[in-house]
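Could you help me review a protein record that somebody else here produced? What it holds is a sequence and that sequence's fold in token form. I need someone to confirm that the token line plausibly describes how this chain folds. Take the sequence as given and treat only the tokens as open to question. This is what I was given:
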Amino acid sequence: MTINIQQLDSSGKSTREEARRQIANKLITCSIILIIIAIIVGAILLGFDKITPENFINLILVVSAVFSGLLGSAVTFYYSAQN
């Protein structure tokens, strides 16, 4: 999908703003899905005694720390277009 950032869409919004919104929404959605997958996989591994509870906690902390930075960047990127 090609987006021309110089034009206005049918509702009068710039396509640049729409592109920023789409990027932010997709990044947030993917991040939430990946965090849920990490929790499920960690819980399965914990259930089969493949990892210790401490390792499960560390897994969740690392995944959430990485994605919180990405989510913060996405929200900042989106709202910087609002001003």
In short: The mean pLDDT is 82. Residues 15-47 form the longest helix (33 residues). Residues 1 and 41 are 33 Å apart (CA to CA).
